[in-house]
Design a protein that fits this description.
Helix content is 37%, strand content 28%. The chain is an alpha+beta fold. The strands form 6 sheets. A 5-stranded mixed beta sheet has the order 12-11-10-13-14, with helices on both faces. The longest helix has 43 residues. It is elongated, with a radius of gyration of 29 Å.
C-alpha cells in the first residue's frame, strides 16, 4: 500500500453519527447502487447491485432524465432498496468544475464571488446555470479553497422532476469528480512537501487534480475530451497527466509528483496506463480504493470508492467537515428564511424548556410578584435589544472588512486592490470625489497597464498630510509611478470656506 495513503475511516474521532445510507452512481452504460455504512475499520457493504450489460442492458444519455430516473427506480425496487437516496452521482459531462480561492466573508459576498468565477470559466453561457461549492478547510487567517461546480439549471430541473415522478427521495446530487477529489484529500497524509496527482476518467470526460499533502492545489476539468480524441483512453490520459506534471514542476520550484492515483479505467487500461507512466515519467500509479470492513459482495473497488465518496462528502471525517455540495434544484434555502427558521426553532425550544422546568417545580401557582419580575425582565431585554443588535452589526462589518482586506493584500492582479488601498490611505479630513480606472491591454499578450486617477477635496488635511500620503502611495507594491496635481480653488461664501481639489494619478504594476 502507498505509504501516503491514510484511510479516511480509521480515525479516532468520527463523531456521534456515523455516515450510512443508500447511494447511486450513474454513467453512460450502468447504474450502481449500494447501501453502505462507515465504521472505524472501513466501509461496510450491506447491499450492492450493478445493472450493467446483462439482463438490465442499457445505455443512457445525460439528456434523457426520464429514462435514467425510471431505470434507477426499477433497480431500487427489484433489489429491495429504499427509495430514499442519500446522494446520486450523475454523468460527469453534465458538469463543469474548477478550484478557486474565497475570502472569509459574508454568504452574500461569497455567492457574488462564485458567480464571477463561473462567468470567468464560461464565455457567453447560452442558458441559466446552477452553481454550488464545497469549501476545503484551511488554516485560520488564510483564504478558503473551494471546489466550484456548475451545470445547466434547466437540465437539473428536469432531473429533479423525473426523480419526483418516480417517487425517488434524493437528498443530494453531486458530481462524482467532486466526491472523489474530496475523498482523495481525506486519504492523503498531511505532508506539505508531497505532491500527488489524481486522475478520473468517465467517458467522455477527464478530471485531473493535484494535492499538496491533503490540500487541493490545482484542478483541470476536461469535459468531452474523448469525444474528438485521435488516440485511445490510455494515450490521452497519459498525455494530460504528463502535461499537468510538467506544469507542476514549473510552478512549484522544480518539485515533482510523488505518485498518481486514478479512477474509472478498466483493468486492461489500468495495467497499460501504469506501465507506460512508469516507463515515460518514472511515476508509480495505483487505483483509488478504500478500506472494506467485511465482505465486499463483489463490488468493484473503484466504483466502491466513488460510492463512498458520494456518501461521506460533507460529513465529519478526517479532522474537518467539508461543506456538502448539492446540485439538486429546490434545495437552496435563502439566508433570511434559514435564519428565521433557526430563530423559530430556538424560540420554540426555549419555550418548551422553560415550560417543562416550570411544571417540574410546581410553577403552575405563579404569584403576582413572579409575574411582575418576568415582565420587568422582558422589558429589560426589549430595551437593550437595539443596542445589542448594533454591536453585532458593527462586529460583522469589522470582520467582513478585515477578511476583505486580507484577501486583497494577497490577490495578484486584482484592479480593485489599488483603489481600496488608496482610499484607506487617505488622511483624516480628506474627502474623495472621484476615482477612475484606465485598463490598457497591450498587443502581444503582455500584462495590462492599469492607471488610477483619484480626485478629492484635501483642504481639511494640510500639506504635511499630503506629503505623507504621497510617500505611503509610492511604497505600495502596486504603485509604479505617482503624480499629484493641485486643482482649482472653490470659494463657497454661504459656507464660509475655501476648498482646494487635488488629483492623484498612478500607474500600476
Amino acid at each position: 500500500m502507498d505509504p501516503a495513503f491514510r484511510s479516511p475511516l480509521a480515525v479516532p474521532r468520527l463523531g456521534r453519527r456515523l455516515p450510512h445510507g443508500t447511494v447511486a452512481l450513474v454513467d453512460r452504460a450502468s447504474i450502481t447502487v449500494a447501501e453502505l455504512a462507515v465504521g472505524p475499520l472501513g466501509v461496510r457493504v450491506r447491499r450492492h447491485v450493478l445493472a450493467f450489460n446483462g439482463r438490465d442492458e442499457m445505455r443512457f444519455l445525460e439528456s434523457d432524465p426520464d429514462s435514467v430516473a425510471a431505470m434507477l427506480a426499477r433497480v431500487l425496487r427489484d433489489n429491495g432498496f429504499s427509495n430514499r437516496l442519500a446522494c446520486v452521482g450523475l454523468f460527469e459531462s453534465m458538469f463543469g468544475a474548477t478550484l478557486c480561492e474565497l475570502p472569509r466573508t459574508t454568504p452574500a459576498a461569497t455567492a457574488a464571488l462564485l458567480e464571477r468565477r463561473v462567468r470567468e470559466q464560461i464565455v457567453a453561457p447560452g442558458e441559466d446555470l446552477l452553481a454550488d461549492h464545497a469549501c476545503v478547510a484551511e488554516a485560520p487567517g488564510t483564504p478558503l479553497r473551494a471546489l466550484l461546480a456548475w451545470a445547466s439549471r434547466s437540465q437539473l430541473d428536469r432531473y429533479a422532476a423525473a426523480f419526483r415522478r418516480e417517487g425517488l427521495r434524493v437528498r443530494r446530487v453531486v458530481p462524482p469528480s467532486v466526491a472523489l477529489l474530496d475523498l482523495f484529500g481525506r486519504t492523503r497524509v498531511a505532508d506539505p512537501e508531497r505532491l500527488e496527482l489524481f486522475a478520473r476518467y468517465c467517458y467522455p470526460s477527464m478530471v485531473i487534480g493535484v494535492h499538496r499533502g491533503d490540500r487541493p492545489l490545482y484542478l483541470r476539468f476536461l469535459p468531452d475530451v474523448m469525444a474528438d480524441a485521435d488516440e485511445g483512453v490510455v494515450s490521452t490520459l497519459l498525455t494530460e497527466v504528463l502535461r499537468t506534471a510538467t506544469f507542476v514542476a514549473e510552478s512549484q520550484q522544480g518539485r515533482t509528483l510523488s505518485g498518481v492515483t486514478f479512477s474509472g479505467l478498466t483493468a486492461s487500461d489500468a495495467s497499460r496506463f501504469t506501465l507506460r507512466l512508469r516507463d515515460e515519467a518514472g511515476l508509480d500509479a495505483q487505483p483509488q480504493h478504500v478500506d472494506v470492513d467485511g465482505p465486499d459482495l463483489g463490488a468493484d473497488p473503484e466504483r466502491l470508492a466513488a460510492l463512498t465518496g458520494l456518501l461521506v462528502h460533507g460529513t465529519h471525517l478526517a479532522r474537518h467537515r467539508v461543506r456538502s455540495m448539492n446540485m439538486l434544484p429546490g434545495t437552496e434555502r435563502p439566508l433570511a428564511r434559514t435564519v428565521a427558521t433557526l430563530l423559530a426553532v430556538a424560540l420554540v425550544t426555549s419555550v418548551i424548556a422553560f415550560t417543562s422546568l416550570g411544571l417540574a417545580r410546581g410553577a403552575a401557582r405563579v404569584s403576582a410578584a413572579e409575574v411582575h419580575g418576568l415582565e420587568a425582565g422582558f422589558e429589560e431585554l426589549v430595551r437593550t435589544a437595539p443596542e445589542r443588535q448594533a454591536l453585532l452589526d458593527a462586529l460583522q462589518r469589522t470582520e467582513t472588512q478585515r477578511a476583505t482586506l486580507a484577501f486583497l493584500r494577497t490577490a495578484a492582479g486584482n484592479p480593485v486592490q489599488p483603489l481600496l488601498g488608496s482610499l484607506l490611505l487617505l488622511p483624516a479630513g480628506a474627502v474623495p470625489i472621484e476615482g477612475r480606472f484606465e485598463n490598457t491591454y497591450a498587443a502581444g499578450g503582455e500584462a495590462p497597464s492599469l492607471s488610477l486617477r483619484l480626485q478629492g477635496d484635501f483642504s481639511g488635511a494640510g500639506s504635511a498630510a499630503l506629503d505623507h500620503l504621497a510617500a505611503e502611495l509610492r511604497a505600495q507594491p502596486w504603485c509604479a509611478a505617482l503624480s499629484m496635481s493641485r486643482g482649482a480653488v472653490r470659494v463657497e461664501p454661504d459656507q464660509g470656506r475655501v476648498t482646494e481639489d487635488v488629483a492623484l494619478g498612478m500607474e500600476l504594476r
